[in-house]
Design a protein that fits this description.
Glutaredoxin; 431 residues; two-stranded antiparallel sheet; binds zinc ion; 18 helices; alpha/beta; five-stranded mixed β-sheet
């Protein structure tokens, strides 16, 4: 269990430019608002237990005691497990409103003394409750407007717009791209490409990027996904050869490079590789939007595969997650029956690996995410814990089960042996 105080909410991802301000005084002042440490959840007793209802009861108790951060973290779990859980959604909003309003009071009180610090507090309030009346009023009264996911003054908006082109140019330089790479802006995306003409090809790519982004934000709604005001950067090379030279990579169809904060692809010419596009973009969204650093390769790659095999329709404007991916199931089966030289990777090994070159690591990892999302008892709660425990935002990470995937399984009355048994049976039978 991670235990965070209320004040920890202010430590995450400040807007660019105020990231490094010291906030010790603020943190100390806010520590007084923090709820007491959350008691560890009781050890799981068995499979039949109704975890969701227990979590709800505990969350309600905490909310009643005004332990708002703690209560909110539990409502997030329920909402992730069941996005249609209106009660959890409503209660999470209530809790977020209360925290947000407290932060607004503090921010407003600090305004004259230290505008930059006060602005940071108000932005934290806005992230928790973007539509909050108190926070909106506080910003508006001080001459701020919401622009591209960030509250800015008129002068800042002008500067942002003016510098948008410059930012594109400087990003192009950082990414070591030639001047013949044009820049296309679409919503949150900045696309760099040397593809001349052939506009429909790029259009299909842009549609897929947007549909994928929307689906990802919906999937991770309970995490309060962050609007990446620094943008999502995507590079499309016309020629594979140029991609190879630029990336120093012979055997990939696309890559996300976290250090560069950009994803790189090339147009294959024989029908674009949308599975690779969605796979690699998932890595960028985990990094910048979900702000999750999945240390377990099976989860990071499994999620990327899960999104990678989403079905795109209507000119790539629509996307559907969660279909059984036949070719992956086929490979898992070959491994299960030791056919064609495939060997099944024990799930305990798979889910402890920091990286792996083994086959069929990717397919089996897809299988983990698909099973957790669609067929394993409490699977979505288990997935939430595994993702939330490595989220960079304290209000999400708060009270997530830490210590590895086996701990998470135990928390929900399972273990690796049980998980593997169900997994093997599911993929031996699924159609
Ligand atoms: Zn990957």
């Amino acid at each position: 269990m991670a235990v965070f105080g209320f004040s920890a909410l202010l430590h995450y991802s400040e807007p660019v430019g105020v990231r490094s301000l010291p906030r010790i005084a603020l943190v100390l002042a806010l520590a007084a608002l923090a709820g007491a440490a959350l008691a560890p959840a009781q050890a799981a007793e068995g499979k039949g237990k109704n975890f969701a209802s227990e979590i709800m009861t505990r969350a309600d108790e905490l909310a009643k005691e005004e332990k708002l951060v703690e209560a909110g973290a539990l409502y997030r779990k329920l909402l992730f497990a069941n996005p249609k859980d209106d009660a959890a959604l409503k209660k999470l909003r209530t809790v977020n409103t209360k925290i947000s309003e407290k932060l607004v009071d503090i921010g407003v009180g600090k305004w004259e003394e230290d505008r930059e610090e006060a602005g940071g507090i108000l932005r934290a309030a806005a992230r928790l409750q973007p539509e909050g009346k108190a926070v909106q009023a506080a910003f508006k009264e001080r001459g701020f407007k919401l622009h591209e996911g960030e509250w800015r003054t008129e002068a800042e908006i002008d500067e942002y717009k003016r510098s948008d082109k410059e930012r594109g140019d400087s990003r192009r330089e950082e990414l070591r791209l030639n001047a013949n790479f044009k820049i296309i802006r679409q919503g949150v995306f900045r696309i760099f490409t040397d593809v001349a003409g052939g506009k429909t090809k790029i259009e299909l790519m842009l549609n897929a990027l947007q549909a994928h982004y929307d689906a990802y934000c919906e999937f991770i709604y309970a995490f309060s996904p962050r609007f990446p005001s620094e943008g999502l950067d995507v590079v499309f090379f016309m020629k594979r050869e140029d991609y190879k030279v630029h990336m120093g990579s012979d055997d990939t169809l696309g890559l996300y490079v976290p250090k560069a904060g950009a994803s790189f692809f090339f147009l294959t010419g024989e029908g674009e590789d949308f599975a690779t596009l969605l796979h690699e973009m998932t890595h960028q969204l985990n990094d910048k939007v979900g702000e999750i650093d999945l240390e377990l390769a099976a989860l990071e790659e499994g999620l990327a595969e899960y999104f990678g095999y989403a079905q795109l329709t209507s000119g790539n404007r629509k996307i559907q997650l969660g279909k059984v991916h036949g070719p992956s199931v086929q490979r898992i089966r070959e491994a299960l029956y030791n056919r064609d030289g495939e060997v099944f990777i024990p799930l305990e090994e798979l889910l402890r690996a920091r990286r792996s070159e083994k086959s069929p690591f990717y397919q089996q990892s897809w299988g983990v995410i698909h099973l957790l999302r669609h067929d394993y008892p409490n699977g979505r709660l288990i997935l939430f814990e595994a993702m939330a425990s490595v989220c960079r935002r304290p209000e999400v990470r708060h009270s997530a089960v830490e210590g590895g995937f086996h701990k998470v399984l135990e928390e929900y009355g399972s273990n690796f042996a049980e998980f593997e048994k169900v997994y093997r049976k599911f993929y031996a039978e699924v159609k």
